[in-house]
Amino acid sequence: MLRRLHIQNYAIIDEIDIDFSNTLNVITGETGAGKSILMGALSLILGERADTSSLQNREKKCFVEGFFSVDNKKAVEKFLTENEFDFEEELVIRREISASGKSRGFINDTPATVQQLKELASSLVDLHQQFDTLELGDSDFQRQVLDGLAGNAELLSTYQKNFRSWDKQKNELEQLQKQKETFQKDFDYHQYVFNELDQLSLSENELENLESELQLLTNAEGIKIALTKVYFELKESEQPIVPQLKILANQLNAFSGYHKNLPELVQRLQSAQIELQDLADEVESLNDQTNFDQKKIDQVNERLSAGYKMLKKHGVQTTNDLLAIRNDLSQKLEAVLNIDDTISTKEQEVKALLQKAEDSAKTLSTRRKKEIPSLEQKVNALLHQVGMPNARLKIQVEPAPLNIYGTDAIEFLFDANKSNRFEPIRKVASGGELSRLMLCIKSLVAQSIDLPTLIFDEIDTGISGEAAKQVGFIMKDLSSNRQLITITHQPQIAGKADAHFFVYKEIKDDAIKTNIRLLSQDERITAIAQMLSGEKPTAAALENAREMVMN
Predict the structure, then answer these.
(1) What pLDDT, in 10s, does the model give residues 245-282?
(2) N or C: which terminal CB in the chain sees fewer CB atoms within 10 Å?
(3) What domains are there in the chain, each with its CATH number?
(4) Residues 425, 428, 434, 436: what is their CA dihedral angle, to the nearest 10 degrees?
């Protein structure tokens, strides 16, 4: 709900504040007084293009601020959350235009783009002006009307859940099918590479271990000579080290009773002799195991050559890299063998979900079609009331491919002159016809759809008398549950107002300015009487106006 509108330095408006009621607000005034200027200013916070020509005083900025009560509107809360704006009970949208033409928008004092203003405003204000294309010709709105009247909210939510599940699984199936095509294209190559690696039959770290083994084999003769010499010196030379240590230990042991340090030295010599004896035995064993084997060297070189070839071919460095490639190829080949089963399972899932979505869509379509005769009858009756006795609405539902809203292509068709030539609304209805048709439809769906503040700018053009009176009744009824603001020239509509604002021009500081004020009940009677009979209303006009206001 638009609680307050503040405008400063816009066109011939110096500064005004308008505090709107939460029901029916009527704005009247002489032609040229500035009613359309108000709508122009309002459109700025709704995200319309800014024009520096609207700045009368080039030394000051233009400000337009709208103060809204959001009343827990889910769409507004969702927008603010998704776009990281502060969520407060009072929502303030501001637009500033500098003298240089730079325009800035703000939502709750946080900078916002024009597109963000426009998106948010669509949930707050529904502005209808003469010659607007209007959302009435939009297929989404037409569907919302039918679903709202048919009470399809819960069913539509269930259907959309089914549709999204089906669509997700369908996409996964398509990916699997594409994957199968790719697998089949690459299968022969993958099989060839895998066979190469599998036939090589490498074990973990094998090439690295073979490199170490080759070093040992190629140096076997030198190693064996060194080991033989060590063993010889330890045990078989003319004075072998091991026996000599034993002799030396025995010589010292003979005198160990005469010196307190000798037993320790004897023990250490014995330990050294035992350690060297073990060392000699290990050297002998290692010497026996070490042999130069040209055949084995050739075998290792051949194995390494095959391994190095694979490393180079695949651009990797280690045996384990090759094993990882082989395992990956194995999984891909396994996937080719299993993908048909996976696709078959997925096809069954998709088929079941599609059936579920189609069943929900069929129910939706049935309920929509069931609602059409009643909606057509009620709208056509209202059109007759609002001065369009020859106009008729016809709703056409054609089959459409399954989509997020079902399988219906909904089109509102219009015949303004009982010609039986129904055409899409957006092609044939005039601005005034569209506005009154929209009023009729929205009055019917007001309880079913979460409508924003409705603003009608002179939708009463071309009507008077009883038709204008009926438009007033419809607006009054519509405003009982939501805020409605209308600019009108019709006294019959003005008489229904809960808050009646009068736009006028005044001279201020030698300049003509537009201003607006809320009329008291007596002022309303006078203003409506002037609308009936002129600037100096007759007694009959005043009495008639009083009756309109009081009733």
Answers:
(1) 888 888 888 888 888 888 888 889 888 888 888 888 88
(2) C
(3) 1-124+452-519 (3.40.50.300), 206-317 (no CATH), 521-551 (no CATH)
(4) -110
